[in-house]
Structures are given as structure tokens and as C-alpha cells.
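Board notes, transcribed. Complex of a protein with 9MR.
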Amino acid sequence: MPHKKRFSRIMRQQFALLTITALAASTMLISCNETAIHPRETSTASLETPDKLPKIQINQVGFLPQDNKVAVITEQQQGTFKVFSLATQQVVFTGQLRDKGRWPLSDEVVSLADFSQVTQAGDYRLELDEGRQSALFSISPLAYSEIHDASLKAYYFNRASMALSAEYAGQWARAVGHPDTQVMIHASAASDQRPEGTFISAPKGWYDAGDYGKYVVNSGISTYTLLLAYRQFSDFYATRSGHIPESNDAVPDILNEVKWNLDWLEAMQDPNDGGVYHKLTTLNFSGSVMPDKAIEQRYVVQKSTAAALNFAAVMAFASQVYSDYENAYPGKSAAYSQAALKAWNWAKAHPEVYYQQPDDVKTGGYGDKYLADEFAFAAAQLFVLTQDPYYLDEFLRLDQPFKVANWASTAGLGYFTLVSFAQDLMSAEQYQQIADKLIKQAELIVTQLEESAYQVPLIESDFVWGSNAVAMNKAMVLLIANQHKVNPQFRHAAVALSDYVLGRNPTGYAYVTGFGQQSPLHIHHRPSEADGVVAPVPGFVAGGAQNGWQDKCTYPSKMPAASYVDDFCSYSTNEIAINWNAPLVYVLAALQADSASR
Ligand code: 9MR
């Protein structure tokens, strides 16, 4: 914590100095213009441990009693390790390190400390022979409850068009920003009924990430994933309170939260034709200011096929889920269903309207020129909603390979939906074909674990922008496969991936803000940067290590799994995003909920 204070003071001084030049250049926008005001020396403090001393990389949050428990020791291949209980001040377990060789993705030689046999609830740390100690961790049947709730609460913290009161937001309370009731139609979005320069109202929704944009494509996978978590773990969600303004109503808080985004999404559809605007943003990224200070004109920009299909998929799913809450939201389920069908029809009539960033727009693109997987995603959702075989035929005709999903690759979400909710609507053979693809992918992921010295199923191509979400999306594949063909290796590999995100990784960071002994303090998130509060807004997972170096920050390592820096400058490794938190929410809910039923 003092580190952030020191950092902020230096930053403020530098900022004052730079203001004159920056104003002159009028480029106080995001991008790594900001490298100038981020002194490098302050950003690598956490990596000052001399390289060649052993480090104990471990999940710093906790383990469920029955799960595998593993730590990775760097630079030491032999010897014993001990598990020390804080409560009893006793060593409760002694084990042998197992040499695992070199992990090429971090260029470290590592060994493994396996203490799965320790199942007694409590707080512990690991110790090596010469006295080196790990971060504290807990073993508890509720190990993931708190972090799960925080990772969902992060969506509340990213709500647009709402003041966050101290009652719900604590020290992160903030004024309302982005009412979005006067959103201008951009030239690229103009139609006869809605000419350029006229206004629509599209309030609410979540800010996409560290910026204040609202993007339909990325909202698609994010909202879907949260709805899936609810649908599959509704008993678990019945027991949670998000401590949000709607908490006292009759609706589970995860659905209250998702509704905030659905209200915005609905307004992104042009009622005149069913087309859906790709995004709602300013022309440029705003400066690093609080939402109420970011007051530049907002626009809806270009309708796109990708936006229409993501919208159709989410609305179709929402129609089903919210049909159970007709009293709370009268007419909504039917409205979502109509909206989904209209968007699908628009996409079928306009199958190749790719998003083309207009010259005067500089915010995130979320451009994608391959849309068969978006068609498959929407078709799967509409099939489950309408039970019309036409949509299943569409899905099957598209014949998309099963891939780990991301915002640009959504066929996997269609597979999740069909295996989870359409078994009774298909022939046994159709179901088996679909389930087999999912299970094959899960088996492949398990082999990746076996081949990795860190014993985490991550390969070089996973280290892209948002690598921690790749880890979580892979964990989703494993956990959903496990629902259809129980295989302890699937859960084991999913736990390894959540361990990775929570600290068993080469950077030693527990990547979720507010959790673990060393977690990010300087996430690329405007409110966290601008609010004057030392601690970042909690519950957000940082994008994670990757060596694309799309910004101009300085990184401590060239290796894909070690190239991460906890610096606001690093939007390519240290931003947060709604599509990265969503699979984290899902995985934590799944691990926690499944363990309760085991
Ligand atoms: O997550 C997106 C990543 O896959 C892309 O490579 C990157 C560059 O186009 O953009 C990422 O998304 C950003 C979006 O464009 C704007 N809001 C912040 C998102 C996370 O960095």
C-alpha cells in the first residue's frame, strides 16, 4: 500500500510538470502517452527479489479441502518443504520437492510442492529448508466465496449512469457519470429515421474495461457468461448477496446486475430495422479522470453483423432466464425474445457488415471479419429459446470447430448452450457429437497441463492480451466438460488454472485486485487511477502476462508468462475488462458450488 502512495505522489508531481506540455499538445488521452508520467523505477518494486533465490509461487487466496494443492518452487529442484499451520504453530505436513525441469514460457527451472494431503481447514504457509516462506493461504470449504462475490461486485463498480453510494461502494463511492441520455448518431450509424447528429438515449450498462466505452460485441460474451453461471449454479446464487442497491428485491443479485447491462443493450438496437450499433463511445479515449469528469460527447457508431449476433444470442438467453422473474420485470422476457429475433433477421439480411472503424473514432474496435462463429452462437441460443429446428440446422450447417471462447470467437458458447440445455431437444447422436467436441477439447487441455513444468494447462499461444481470461475460459471448458463426462482430471486442471490466476505463476501476483499477498495496485482502470483512494477498486482480474508489448511500458521480462507489469501505463497486461471478469466469476462459482455438492 505505501508503494501506491509513494507512486501517486511522484505521479502527481510529474503530472503537474507535464500538464503544461500536455495541454499544449492536447494529447492527454489514453495510450502510452502516459508512459511519460509513469516513472519506471516505481513499477517493478515487487520484482526486486534477487532472481536466483527460490521463489514459492502459490495460490495466495485459498484451496478447497478436497482439491489438489500444489505450489511451484523456482530455482530449487530438490529438498523438502513444510506446511506450517498458523493456528497451531506446527508443521502439519512435510513433502519432497519434485523436479519438473524448465518452463519455456517463463524460462525458469522449477519443482513442485504437492500438499494435496492437507485437507484440514485453516490458514497456512509453505516453508523451504533454508527458511523461505510462501504467502499465506487458507484451506477452507468457502475458499472462493469472498473472491467470487468481489469479482461479481466489480460489475456494480463499473456501472455507467449511476452514482455509487458509500453504502454500497465504501471508499470507492463516486458521482454519477455518463448519463447517456443524449447520445449522438455518428455519421457511420446514420439512417433515414435516425440522421447523423440526432440523439438517442442509451443509459446504463457497464463500462467495458479501464475505459468508459460500452461495446456490444464484448458485452455479448460477458453477459452470456454471467447468465450461464446463474443458470447452472442458481442454488449457489440464491445464497449470495451482492450488497448492491437492488439487493432487497426478489431477484438474485447476479440477475439484478446483468439487468443493468441488458437495459443498455436494448437501447443499442434500432427499433426501425432491428440492427444493432457496434458501440457507444466518445470519439477518443478520455483522460484518466473520474466518470463525472469525462463529459465529451458520446456517439453510437455503425451497426454491425457481429453486434447484431452477439445481441441476439444474449437477448435470447435473457428471455429464458428472466421468464422466471415476470413479476419483477413484467414483459421483459417477451421483449428480449422479440429483440433477439429482430436482430437475427437483420444479421441474416446483412451477413457481412463488418465493423470498420471510422477515421474520426479512436476507441476500441472489437473488429472481427470472421462471423460464422457468431452466427453459431446466436443460432444455438435461438434454438434453445424457440425450439425451432431451423436454428439447430443453422448451427450444424455452420460446422464450427470447438475452440476456447473469447470475444471474437464465440462458437464455443453455442456448444456450451447446446450441451447444457438442449440435450432433450436433439437426437442422441446430435447431442453426442456436440458433447464429444467439448470433451475432446477438455482432454487436450489436460495434456497441456501434463506437459507444463508449472503444471498449468497454458501454452504459448494463450499468452495474448487478456491471458488471464484465456486461462479462465479454458477452465470453463474443463468444468462444463466435467458436467457431461465426469473426469477428476478436468477439475484438477481447472483448479490449476485458477491457482495460476491467484498466484501460482511466474510473476508472483495474485492477479485479482484486493486478494492475496501481492495483487495489482495500479490497474489500467480510470476510476482506480483517478479516485485518490490508495487501494484499487476490488474484484477485478488484470489482463495478465503476455509479451505483445502493444503499449510502450517497460516490462521486467521478455518471456510470455513473465511479461507483466503492475503499472497504469500497461493497458496490454494490466487493464481490466468485463469479458475477463466474467469467466473468473463463472469458474469461482463452479468450483465453489460443485464442491458443496461433492
Ligand atoms: O481485449 C481486446 C483485445 O483482444 C484486443 O487485442 C485489444 C486491441 O484491439 O483490445 C482489447 O479490448 C480493449 C477494447 O478495445 C477497448 N476497451 C478495453 C479493452 C481491453 O483492453
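The longest strand covers residues 90-96. The first helix runs from residue 2 to 25.
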